[in-house]
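Possible regression after last week's pipeline update?

I re-ran a chain I had predicted before the update to compare outputs. Posting the input and the new output here so someone can diff against the archived version. Not blocking, just want to make sure nothing changed silently.
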Amino acid sequence: MAIYTRTGDQGETSVIGGRVGKDDVRVEAYGTIDELNCFVGQARSLMVDEKFADVREQLLEIQHELFDCGSDLAFVKLSEGKYKVKSEMAERLEGWIDTLQAENPQLERFILPGGSELSSVVHVCRTVCRRAERRAVTLGRSADINPQAVIYLNRLSDYFFALARTANTRSGIADVEYVRSKKVFRN
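New output (post-update):
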């Protein structure tokens, strides 16, 4: 089977229920989720140490859910009963966030992306996730979408923030504080 179809040579692509320009906001939204999924895969590939086995499995589940999220956004018309992203997915992320946060030292200042290589890659996941969320919100202003997809992406970026910090904590590396910040977080 050939992977090229030539159907997109004129700048259009197929979505579920029609064809749109490759620069359509719908394509931008699920394309950014696809980009995020690649970075999540990169983060997983850096988790060779057994101390990351739990989050490695979480990230695999997230990769599947990102496919679900992209699929939900690819539908031009979809009845609500067919959506794949459900509220339980964001709720589960909240539990994972709480568990990760319990490992991390208390924040006093804003932090910069960095520390370990893994933490840096997870921070890239966080920022690409935020962009995917913005693209989904933009799409939602002009089309009906699964609102749970936006909620999921919002919670997922919080998960990546907590995970980036945990990656440093488990590696024995301190977060990089933004030294020009006053102490903004209180117990």
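Follow-up from reviewer: compared with the archived run. The two ends are 58 Å apart (CA to CA). Marking as no regression found.
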